[in-house]
Amino acid sequence: MKLSLSMWSLHRTVRAGGWTVIDFLAFCRKEGIDSVELLDVFWQNQAVELDEVVRYTRENGIRVVSYAVGNDLVSASEEGRSAALREITDAFPVAKALGTSVVRVFSGSLHPGIAYDQALGWIVSGLSDAAKQAEEAGITLALENHGQLAGRGGQVKDIIEQVGSKALRSTFDTGNFLLVDEHPSQAIEPLLPYIAHVHMKDFKRHPEGRYQSLGGQTFEGTVAGEGDTRLASLIERLEASGYAGAYVLEYEGTGDEAEGIRGSYAFADEYNRAHGEGRP
């Protein structure tokens, strides 16, 4: 198992310190991390920064395995839906420049006054348009289980199958399923044929957790391997199925983010030793 690091794992540090993408990559270089996921939300001036980031990754042997956008295809206005589609397609040349063909996407959020079926129709329509353009560009869109509209395994599977394009696959986020009251060990089965990308995240039940599930349970982010997702068994299931994509750490715990990241990499090291594999 080769572990990568999402820049989201340091989002509090990044925002508090005004970090640029280069600052994040410098952190990775110092920590010996050579595989990352970048997000559109962290550009301060993409037009200025992109060339510098591409050069830094090449000079320092850092591979960008995925690029993530935060689109919301659920909008009552056609203009809003078109803007969300552009957010996805505008990411294609950025991802290509960074050296990756995987773009993490969202479905959208359930807004007041919008019925579930109507929202789902907009999601399928928008992702169908995006997938058509992704096919032409050689891009794989990886839909993350996130929120009420595509939070459960069956929902993600249904969207992928309705779109019906090999350019739309699944980002299997191991932690987010708990927030829709579905354990990832259940959600993984219907999604196995479609998983092209993995976010390795761990949550644990906590009475004062910041994350509340639809059923009212509260969770907190934690070091990989210390939560309720049963990460080791999920990784074993993915490997047994032949999954060959990236495992991207998305740490969302409290406290020092760097320490949480180090602890999560230690879990990956331990997993690999137990399974006779090399360093993550």
TrEMBL record:
Gene3D superfamilies this protein is in?
Answer: Divalent-metal-dependent TIM barrel enzymes
Supply the InterPro entries for this chain.
Answer: IolE/XylAMocC-like (IPR050312), Xyl_isomerase-like_sf (IPR036237), Xyl_isomerase-like_TIM-brl (IPR013022)
What are this entry's molecular-function GO terms? endonuclease activity
Give the UniProt keywords, A-Z.
Endonuclease, Hydrolase, Nuclease
By its UniProt entry, which Pfam families does this protein fall under?
AP_endonuc_2 (PF01261)
Every Xylose isomerase-like TIM barrel domain range: 26-267
Does the entry feature the keyword Hydrolase, yes or no?
yes
Q: Could you confirm whether the keyword Hydrolase appears in this record?
A: yes
Top-rank taxon: Bacteria
Q: Which PANTHER family match?
A: BLR5974 PROTEIN (PTHR12110:SF53), HYDROXYPYRUVATE ISOMERASE (PTHR12110)
Q: What name appears for this protein in its UniProt entry?
A: AP endonuclease
